[in-house]
Structure formats: C-alpha cells, structure tokens
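Lab channel / #folding
Pinned by the channel admin:
"Please post every new chain as: sequence first, then the structure tokens as a reply. Keep commentary short and put observations after the output so the thread stays searchable."

First post following the new format, from NK:
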Amino acid sequence: MPCLGRRKKRTEIKELLLILALKKAGPIGRYRLKKILDLSEYEGIVRLMLTDLERKRIISVSRKGCKLTRKGESLLAKSLGAYNIAKIKQVDLRSLGLDNSFCVHVRDHAEMIRPVAQYRDAAVRAGALGAIILKYADGILTVPNVYSDFSLEYPKLTAEILQGFDFLNGDVLILGFAGDEWKALEGALAVAIEMAKDTKHDI
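Reply from TO:
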C-alpha cells in the first residue's frame, strides 16, 4: 500500500491496519482508531491519515465514525494482493495458550529467504508478543525447525485451520498473538509484509 506521508509513525502497516479495522469493525470513531493503531499519543497523525483517506474518498466520515467506501474496499483488496495475503481470520488458539490472535494466510512462500526467527522478530517489532509460522504442503502443516507435522501435536487445531483456509502447496499461515487482538493482527501483517518484500527483492 502506498504511504500517505513521511511523518513519524505513518508506516504502511499502520495504514493497512487502519483500513482493515474499518472493514472489520466500522464505523469507528477517531478515539477508538487511535487505540487500535496504538497511536494515542499521536492524535495529529491519525487525524492527518483520516483526512487524506477522506479526501481520496477511501473512507466516509459521519457522526457514527469512519467507514470504508467502495473505493476503500477496492484499495484494501489491491493492497492485500500486493502482499500475497489471501485471507485474514481469527482462530481460537487457546490450545496453544494464546488468547488474542489473528491468522494471516499468505500465498506461495515455499522457500523463505530468511530464517523463521527473523520473520517472528518483525511481529515483535510491530508490538505483538510473537508469531507462529506454519507452512503447508501436501495436506500437512509444519512449523519449520519445530514440528514436521503440526497435527501430531495439535490435531483439533490443525483440523480447524485446514477447514478454515484454502491452502495451496507453498502457502504460509502466520499466527500473530499479542495482549490485544489488533496488536496480534499488526504483528502478523508485519511478517507478511516482510515476506512480500523479500520475494520482490529475490526476483
């Protein structure tokens, strides 16, 4: 997604998170958006982001709050496609001891350019507690360097994941987790964005 400016904290991940939040929970007021974006101390930045989006007719603003327009939904779909994101969904990960989580399904990452730990670090830098990365091939989910078959350890969760996502060989599922659900999503998105950048550089 193109950046809306170069001011502090106005990164592509914050902008993508804002539009996703409006898609999933809109209409949303500016106060709640500041909390979702973890920018409570940067109200001016959030205001500028919203002003830019409204001017471009990506969002509409009313007394109820901000919501996406059709143009905004089209932009969101294009942005997710640019990062190879096929689906975003919440999955119950309490069997892993995780209360707040979001799963981001990324297409076609059969070979990861960097060690898995470096991608997990991207989630932490974004404010999540961490991320679990699953790879799919021939009906099996693996956790690189940990589980060769995730279903042997977590059969019920694996069955739920396989049912909830339309995997192709080489796909990756990023399970972001954090103290709140939006930070979990931001962390998972951060990993997906890093993977997409690596793929482009590799080409």
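NK: The longest strand covers residues 130-137.
TO: also worth noting, The two ends are 19 Å apart (CA to CA).
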